[in-house]
Amino acid sequence: MNFIARRVRFTYRQEHKAPASRVFPLLCPTREYDWIRTWKCNLIYSQSGYAEENCVFTTDFPEDGGRDAWVVINYIPNCSIQFVRVNNLRAIRYNIALKDNADGTSSSQWEQVITALNEEGNRFVDGLSQEKYTEEKKKLEAMLNHYLQIGKPFPLTD
Predict the structure, then answer these.
(1) Which of 28, 66, 137, 156 is deepest in the core (most CB within 10 A)?
(2) pLDDT tens-digit map of 33-42
């Protein structure tokens, strides 16, 4: 077998108009329904019903390569959460680290390390870019800040 996996790493820093203690609980498969209108997941296992270490859920977003299994591999409340996300094409390790700015705001550093699992996955990884990742995380940042200020999801646009 001559397969050589391609890997990319993307990062983005978000600024939040709320302390980490308000932001962190929203980084959860069930709480994302509160602030992301297009979010859909199937919670497979969680003792609390929310994100926690070893929580397992699935998503199915065709633009992301189809059905994914997610596992929360590290969970430190108000500080950091890490996921591993896998489908037939690629594996992703997500790291989200929060920092409270002690002035009613916080910031978070988002990182994804994406590794192809096969040749089709290599083609998928080749289609990714830091620019697309930044655009996606900027949209999430706007949605999250809107929810933190208004208490409702960001309106959908045409």
Answers:
(1) 28
(2) 999 999 999 9
Which helix or strand (DSSP H or E) is residue 156 part of?
none
pTM for the predicted model, two decimal places: 0.92
Are residues 106 and 99 in contact, defined by beta-carbon separation less than 8 angstroms?
yes
Structural tokens at position 120: 């089709």
Domain boundaries 7-150, corresponding CATH code: 3.30.530.20
DSSP helix/strand/coil, 46: coil
Domain boundaries, the chain: 7-150
Work out the average pLDDT over 45-74: 94
Cα dist from 124 to 22, 36, 48, 60, 147, whole Å: 35, 25, 35, 16, 32
Q: What is the pLDDT of residue 154?
A: 80
- Give 79-121 as a DSSP string: TEEEEEEE-SSEEEEEEEEEEE-SSS-EEEEEEEEEEESSHHH
